[in-house]
Design goal:
Blueprint: E1 3-9, E2 13-20, E3 27-31, E4 34-40, H1 45-65, E5 76-78, E6 83-89, E7 95-99, E8 102-108, H2 116-149, E9 155-159, E10 166-168, E11 173-177, H3 185-197, H4 206-216, H5 220-227
Parallel strand pairs: 2-4, 6-8, 9-11
Antiparallel strand pairs: 1-2, 3-4, 5-6, 7-8, 10-11
Helix pairs in contact: 2-3, 3-4
Length: 235
């Protein structure tokens, strides 16, 4: 089970620490106003401090380079399943209009979208929208793949996770990132099958990869390399 905590470091600011029993090394990532560190359960505080001493300065530089996307009429999400954008209108309310696979957030033309409070609100709206799309797409697809390949899992949940596309507990509970719906269909299926294979092999042994290769009907490690090129950078 993942254990998360948030600390205020005197030198590096806010740090989100995740202890993951499946992690084999310390992983550090920069996010806007936050450093994210994944630790193996056996890692000590001294090892964490040593990692920060080695890579903290570089992480802060990366953090400074990260600029949140501005959400306005030019903002666009394009996926094989749906599209999302913003458009001004003459009304006085925010509305979402759907036309087939296209979803448009209509906003009053006089609205100042660029103020920080409005940007934060729009980000929350988009996250809720993506959660809705994820709920429509992912659980059903997971069940289809499980039935097709003979896997069983106990439950599925959706999370706002930027660092992991999915995870599977020892009890067969699968957790999926809502941002999976931004990926091409073949990569969505790869992640779902990856987690389903963990219901049989809770590791990344050769048996696991052989099982995943069979389910994907291809070299699954090639798909893993393609997946690594995708990032959740829409917000």
């Amino acid at each position: 089970m993942l254990k998360k905590s948030l600390i205020a470091h005197p030198q590096y600011g806010n740090i989100e620490i995740t202890r993951n029993p499946r992690a084999r090394r310390i992983i550090l990532r920069a996010r806007p106003n936050l450093l994210c560190i994944t630790l193996p359960t056996f890692a000590t505080t001294k090892e964490l401090e040593r990692a920060l001493e080695m890579y903290g300065k570089k992480l802060l530089e990366q953090q400074d380079a990260i600029q949140p996307k501005t959400i306005d009429a030019s903002y666009r999400i394009e996926t094989p399943q749906f599209t999302f954008g913003l458009q001004p209108h003459n009304g006085d309310k925010f509305l979402i209009k759907q036309n087939g696979r296209e979803h448009i957030l209509l906003y009053p033309a006089a609205t100042n979208l660029h103020c920080p409070r409005r940007q934060a609100w729009l980000r929350d709206v988009i996250k809720r929208y993506l959660r809705g799309r994820a709920k429509d797409i992912l659980p059903g697809r997971l069940q289809q793949l499980a039935t097709r390949h003979g896997f069983r899992y106990s439950s599925v949940s959706l999370r706002d996770s930027h660092t992991r596309w999915g995870s599977c507990s020892s009890r067969g509970s699968i957790s999926l990132s809502i941002y999976l719906v931004l990926l091409p269909d073949e990569l969505i299926d790869y992640v779902l099958l990856h987690e389903l294979c963990h219901t049989v092999e809770m590791n990344h042994s050769e048996r696991f990869w052989a099982l995943l290769d069979k389910a994907c009907q291809c070299d699954s490690r090639t798909l893993r390399q393609v997946l690594r090129k995708h990032k959740c950078d829409i917000l």
